[in-house]
Amino acid sequence: MRFGFVTCVQLGLACMEEIYEAGGSLELVLSLPDERARDKSGRIYVDDFCARHAIPVVKSRNVNDAECVSAIRRHDLDWLFIIGWSQIARRDVLEAPKQGVLGIHPTLLPVGRGRAAIPWAILKGLDQTGITLFKLDEGVDTGPILAQHVIPIGSQETATELYDKVTRAHRILIREVWPELSAGTIRPQPQDNTRATQWPGRTPEDGRITPSMTVAEVERLVRAVTRPYPGAFFDIDGRRLRVWAGKPRGERPVSGYDIRLADGAYTALQYEWEALPGAATS
């Protein structure tokens, strides 16, 4: 079986490293042009890795460009991985590899189709989530499943911790599935659409703390949207308090900033003050 990879982020590079550690190889890698990689937060360069393993590299702003489709076909790929790429692959790309295109979604599909999977898993109070290797189709996270890996969620789990678990799970899943995938014996199974749920996208504004919220709601929100996400925030006296960590205020005061809420107070322990967006500065 012949494989290609599309990525521009560290998570994708980690998966490529795992393929080689499992004894596999890649015939082609597609990534962003260097000037785009420099301008995008969290982007990485694939050049050194590909040079070490003699992998041809094609750089493009859009994976759907004719140049990319042609390269996929020219390298006679069976499967193409797309990990950490913001554009949706259109039909020409989906049909270019002989077996199809593979993605990894950070939920146990069909639960949690959509976006913001890590914050939502915490906000919904789940005790487990996972990642799913699936074959992309023209829907949103609707394609047949090849493999899954379960990730437990602790009662005080933060987005930072869960993000790290999801990253490690990508490596584990690649390692586990590689023998069947490379041998061509893996059999994708259709999703059970009766169990499907859709999780909507989130914006930085969804991290707003308001006085009408309960302490429990704020405690969960802070954990769900802390780094690497934009963080929860509270506006007061013409300033914005950005909260990265905290706890419900107990009987014994601790050093921090207390936010008064509907049923008590929440103490911000790791925080920073910011000017309100659009506020005049002297």
Walkthrough of the structure:
By secondary structure, the chain is of the alpha/beta class. It folds into 2 domains: 3-103 and 133-141 and 153-186, Rossmann fold (3-Layer(aba) Sandwich), CATH 3.40.50.170; 204-275, Formyl transferase, C-terminal domain (Methionyl-tRNA Fmet Formyltransferase, Chain A, domain 2, Roll). 29% of the residues lie in helices and 26% in strands. The chain contains 8 helices and 13 strands. The strands form 3 sheets. It has a 7-stranded mixed beta sheet, sandwiched between helices. It has a 4-stranded antiparallel beta sheet with strand order 10-11-13-12, with helices on one face. Strand 4 (79-82), helix 5 and strand 5 (100-105) form a beta-alpha-beta unit. The chain is elongated. It starts with a strand and ends in a 7-residue tail after the last strand.
Question: What is the structure about, briefly put?
Answer:
The protein has 282 residues and is an alpha/beta fold. It has helices at residues 10-21, 34-39, 47-52, 66-74, 91-95, 117-123, 159-183, 215-225; strands at 3-6, 28-31, 57-59, 79-82, 100-105, 113-114, 128-135, 145-152, 198-199, 232-236, 239-248, 257-261, 264-275. The strands form three sheets. It has a seven-stranded mixed sheet, sandwiched between helices. The protein has a four-stranded antiparallel sheet with strand order 10-11-13-12, covered by helices on one side. Strands 6-9 form a two-stranded parallel ribbon.
